[in-house]
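Quick one:
INPUT:
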């Protein structure tokens, strides 16, 4: 790592320059947002990259950055005559990677493993094609908020710096059709950075203790796009721009940028990013900056230079003692995308689960031959998975034609190939020797319109007159009410939001209760099973029929529920509970760890992204409720104890007053497929989420009463291949190494254990082991005794390379 002075010298910054404005020019090429990847490549990317290579070859001091691998690989494959030029520029550090990711991923909806594979697969593509960059920077240009445990994920993959743009409470032109004076929103991350810390640079430290050096693009990731242009915008959606390269114009633009950035810089350096969606490189960029420095530096004392975003962060790194250290949760930015296009999200998550299962099963002794080829066999499917991480893919924010023509076919094709492989790997799993008989502890009877059920844990009452809602639920042990009103009620809202936002998020939006299932009666059917009781009913909301199921186990305290159906167009469906709990904080898991959140921030209601679990606990009585679900979702909680889960959305496009579209949210989408939303309830008497093992229950929540027994048995078999001695540390992935020898084991824990963890393999003896990062670069050797590996978790994620005898 060069020193500050060495880097300044390399960038041509004079020793006496007290203030430096760095222009970082980068691509922002969404793989398939409003157009398919093929259309984007032909219309923009190919020409932009041709131009970037030409400009770099003309101006030897110039740096142009590429934010992800997806289109670079497409260009590489289709234009082999350009490969030598690309490789040379990459290896010279002039065509600069601002991440090793295949995409600029969303980090709220994919699993932690999917995000880490994204960073690995892109790095391996570079390595396979003899490009030696290994970025320490991961740039999340346009993601709609980030997981608050992003530092843990990045540290796990060998990154120590990042930059982000969209944080809660900020103003973004074109997306917010109200005065910028209304921003930043009170209590938001934007307010804290702009008005309290007055810094765009900070040390981002998460609740696990992981930290990264971070920059925030408060004035968008295309702040400097119009440096050499007149007009309004160079973005392809509404391009109103003409070249304007006079010295006077350039100087005026730079003064505008300085006026924005200087008050928010605690170091001698300021960053002005260039690179909105698909904008082309600025011609003769270095010449323009040289002219400015020659004519204006003696008067302004500000030196302007082109450099990489990683160069900027390297320059401010020696000044970290001047920067604030923050636990940042940059959410909620938008909330509608948490649950937009649920079937698309389900496809993405199921594909990851199946790929991980196939990799684990390939290590069984009976699959010895398959182990040799499993990486190659699954390579294409993993590529599709990491592409689906993109912040306009798994989020569901592309229009119908792109989703139907490209995204769903990609996922379905990958799923078919993985299922074929699983069929070969999935030998008959061992039969379960556990038998469950009927229990007298589970009884029920019907009294008029009400069904009353008693289990070992609860007394529960459901009412046909109220659409099958829960009208009473008590603890069997204490006889105290656990719900205080009509609950598990299906509620339909008129929602003028769309794929990104819900109707309450913007001025002129509509979010209004339309109808509740409890307003109409519904006949219930009770089905007795050997291991539980199932209650089924149909309800109709806005002309759409929903099949509701509740499963009460004879001994388990978990109440499993599911809803099957589709929201009516222009509506969102929630499940409402009267919890009677008065909580000041929500404990939730998120990719990379756990987070404690307030019930309300910016919006009322505030819907938070729900990954797998949330636990709320009464501040006075200690009574609590956990919601568990296998797929991403959204949850809100009000001070009066009302809790709502978003079950389904079919809000087509953000519109003011239901009529006027928002320019920054131009895509519309319609939900045509029925969806099955699964969730579960667990009531707790005392203790927090850790003391009640909520995280362990959430890991297994996909194995519910409606699961395929064969799938459950296969996953149990796969989980037995490599195990740990700590129930809090799970093995989330086992895979062949991407290079070198051995196999890779990925461990995850929602909190750091107090002692070392022991790892054991069931079918082979481990002889050597190495702690790696998620890009599979060895960090240190590990202690191996009698075939068992001992490791101290470096964070919430640990990657280990095992060698076997």
């Amino acid at each position: 790592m060069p020193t500050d002075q060495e880097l300044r010298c390399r960038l041509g910054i004079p020793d006496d320059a007290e203030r430096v404005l760095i222009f970082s020019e980068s691509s922002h090429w969404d793989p398939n947002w409003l157009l398919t990847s093929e259309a984007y490549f032909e219309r923009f990317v190919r020409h932009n990259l041709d131009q970037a290579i030409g400009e770099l070859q003309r101006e030897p001091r110039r740096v142009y950055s590429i934010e992800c691998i997806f289109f670079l690989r497409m260009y590489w494959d289709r234009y082999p005559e350009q490969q030598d030029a690309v490789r040379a520029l990459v290896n010279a550090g002039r065509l600069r990677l601002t991440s090793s990711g295949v995409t600029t991923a969303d980090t709220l909806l994919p699993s932690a493993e999917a995000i880490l594979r994204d960073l690995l697969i892109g790095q391996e593509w570079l390595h396979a094609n003899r490009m030696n960059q290994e970025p320490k920077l991961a740039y999340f240009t346009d993601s709609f908020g980030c997981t608050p445990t992003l530092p843990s994920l990045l540290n796990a993959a060998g990154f120590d710096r990042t930059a982000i743009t969209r944080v809660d409470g900020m103003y973004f032109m074109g997306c917010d059709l109200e005065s910028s004076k209304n921003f930043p929103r009170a209590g938001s991350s934007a307010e804290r950075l702009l008005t309290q810390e007055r810094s765009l640079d900070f040390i981002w430290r998460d609740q696990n203790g992981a930290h990264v050096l971070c920059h925030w693009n408060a004035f968008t990731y295309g702040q400097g796009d119009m440096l050499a242009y007149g007009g309004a915008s160079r973005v392809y959606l509404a391009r109103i721009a003409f070249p304007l390269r006079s010295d006077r114009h350039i100087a005026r633009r730079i003064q505008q940028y300085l006026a924005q950035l200087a008050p928010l810089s605690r170091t001698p350096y300021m960053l002005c990013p260039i690179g909105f969606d698909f904008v082309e490189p600025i011609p003769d960029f270095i010449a323009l900056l040289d002219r400015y420095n020659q004519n204006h530096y003696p008067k302004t004392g500000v030196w302007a230079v082109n450099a990489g975003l990683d160069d900027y962060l390297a320059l401010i790194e020696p000044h970290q003692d001047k920067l604030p250290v923050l636990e940042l949760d940059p959410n909620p930015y938008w909330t509608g995308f948490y649950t937009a296009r649920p079937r698309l999200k389900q496809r993405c998550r199921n594909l990851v689960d199946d790929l991980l299962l196939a990799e684990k099963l390939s290590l069984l002794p009976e699959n010895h031959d398959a182990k040799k080829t499993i990486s190659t066999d699954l390579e294409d499917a993993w590529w599709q998975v990491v592409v689906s991480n993109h912040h306009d893919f798994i989020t569901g924010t592309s229009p119908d034609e792109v989703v139907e023509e490209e995204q769903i076919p990609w996922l379905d094709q990958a799923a078919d190939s993985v299922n074929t492989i699983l069929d070969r790997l999935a030998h008959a799993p061992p039969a379960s020797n556990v038998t469950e008989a009927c229990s007298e502890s589970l009884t029920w009877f019907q009294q008029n319109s009400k069904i009353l059920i008693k289990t070992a844990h609860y007394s529960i009452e459901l009412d046909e007159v109220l659409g099958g809602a829960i009208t009473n639920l008590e603890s069997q042990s204490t006889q105290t009410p656990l719900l205080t009103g009509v609950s598990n009620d299906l509620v339909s809202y008129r929602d003028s939001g769309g794929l990104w936002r819900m109707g309450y998020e913007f001025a002129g939006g509509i979010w209004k209760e339309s109808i509740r299932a409890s307003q109409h009666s519904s006949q219930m059917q009770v089905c007795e099973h050997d291991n539980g009781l199932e209650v089924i009913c149909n309800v109709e909301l806005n002309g759409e029929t929903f099949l509701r199921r509740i499963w009460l186990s004879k001994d388990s305290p978990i109440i499993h529920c599911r809803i099957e159906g589709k929201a009516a167009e222009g509506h969102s469906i929630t499940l409402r509970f009267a919890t009677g709990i008065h909580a000041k904080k929500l404990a939730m898991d998120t990719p990379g760890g756990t987070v404690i959140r307030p019930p309300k921030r910016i919006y009322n209601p505030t819907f938070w992204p729900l990954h797998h679990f949330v636990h709320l606990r009464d501040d006075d009585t200690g009574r609590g409720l956990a919601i568990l679900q296998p797929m991403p979702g959204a949850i809100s909680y009000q001070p009066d104890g009302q809790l709502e889960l978003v079950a389904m959305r079919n809000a087509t496009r953000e519109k003011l007053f239901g009529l006027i579209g928002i320019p920054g949210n131009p895509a519309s989408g319609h939900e045509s497929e029925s969806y099955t939303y699964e969730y579960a309830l667990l009531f707790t008497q005392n203790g927090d989420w850790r003391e009640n093992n909520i995280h362990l229950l959430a890991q297994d929540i996909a194995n519910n009463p409606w699961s395929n027994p064969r799938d459950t048995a296969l996953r149990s078999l796969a989980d037995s291949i490599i195990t740990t001695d700590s129930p809090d540390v799970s093995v989330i992935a086992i895979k062949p190494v991407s290079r070198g020898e051995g196999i890779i084991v990925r461990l995850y824990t929602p909190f750091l254990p107090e002692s070392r963890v022991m790892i054991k393999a069931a079918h082979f003896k481990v002889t050597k082991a190495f702690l790696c990062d998620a890009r599979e670069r060895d960090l240190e050797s590990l202690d191996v005794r009698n075939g068992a590996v001992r490791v101290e978790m470096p964070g919430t994620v640990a990657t280990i390379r095992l060698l076997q005898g």
